[in-house]
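**User:** My hope is that you can spare some time for a protein that puzzles me. I have put the entry right below:
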Amino acid sequence: MGKRKRAAEDNALRSKIMLNGTSHAIKQAKQGNRPPVALQIIAGTYERVLHGVSATIPGDQDGSASATLGVDFADTFLFNAHASAIRCLALSPPAKSDKVILASGSSDQTINIYHISANRVSQKVGRDHSLPTVGGRNIVENPRNRELGSLQHHAASVNALKFPTRAKLLSAADDCTIGVARTRDWTVLSSIKVPIPKAQGRPSGDTAPLGGTPAGINDFAIHPSLKLMLSVSKGERCMRLWNLVTGKKAGVLNFDRNLLQAVGEGRWGRGEGYKVEWNIQGEEFVVSFEKAAVVFGLDSNPKGIIKTSPPSKIHQIHYIDLGVLESRNTNPLAISTEDGRVIFFSADSKAIPDQTSQVPVWPAIGQIGGGVESFGSRIKDFEYLRVQSEQDPARAPLIVTGSSNGIISVWKLDSLPNLGMLHPSGHVADATSTNGERIDQRTSAKIRSIGQLLGKYETGNRITCLKAFVLAEMSDVEDGDSPIAKNSVETNGSAGVASDGSS
């Protein structure tokens, strides 16, 4: 009886502590003292290393206009994952198991699978698993991060990985196949074969062997309805539409010659799409070329052209979901460039007609990065993160970038209404330069900076791809217990919701 009484008293005390902590968090949010935000960043590198880094952002930095405190970075894992350079990463949507599935693809033809914890390490577990270091870096090992195994159903370099839901993993490779694997038992259910293009001369920049043809899938994108898929391949001036219900081809859209000339892909250009992505509503999609991108509607007609000023190579492209634009049923578009910038475009801005293709050119509405500090650091990949919690539903979104010089940067993105860039009518507003002069965003090459750098971290390896998500809060529990998640997480590119119990 005495033992049961003491257990009941301990449970009551624990509940009281949790309630006091919740009320304290709400009180802090009302007073402006926001709790810190923890991020899990995963970077794939040329050196075959899969590098996991946690970034803790103080609440005052994320809530105020000036950044006076530094971001606390710590290494969480360092895997010698592949026998060759890592080319792509994919994260599954979060589930009740508080674990995220991480998939990495490489040019060694393999796909490695990992379980990554979706909760931050508590102080108790962090002290137990903190490792000594000589280089001065913080190392906090999370015991929940585990390697599951590898898939070897491709016969060439793996170029793209996507989780449409937590139950399926799709992969594309240079062997012109798209594999569909089930995450419950990691069985390859089917394989979609893409036709090998016919040889039509040797385009500039071709790396195919003598007598061969450049072949392989560069990228693919799955419609939010999970019924359609787009793919772009090497050596093809077209994109293919696939029916995921039947697994067969639904159509082929050839790029118009005038359209290719407008995006800088002339007669001697390759003319192939490098990246493709649907917007969040599934009403339009974008195809990126070497130095420009084209936005298409559901009728496969081009709606707008995206060009950088000054011209620069495009490495990554994403649609982002900003809460302030949800009422307009549109999403801004962000691209990362060779000169170390992330530039934002929007269909709401007033477009400039193009004389070559009669397709309007969308002007940029803002950027982060650039300048002398970004010289020589091309941004290979980036992630848009929006933090939501019951105590503080409105927080500034974050941008995490990975550069080829091995630097991971965390940016705070300002909200568009506060910058005054978009009027309610949808036209671009005039910005003000540092000397007080007005700058017209439609005609000037100067683009206003809409972000603030919070912190940088040097990985020591050349980054090729990057993924990131927000870690949820957890109680002091050991490995194997059920943590208590308090924050909801929204990451860019997480299509679908897990419906089964696979982990």
About this structure: The CA atoms of residues 95 and 498 lie 7 Å apart. The first strand starts at residue 37 and ends at 45. The first helix runs from residue 2 to 31. The two ends are 40 Å apart (CA to CA).
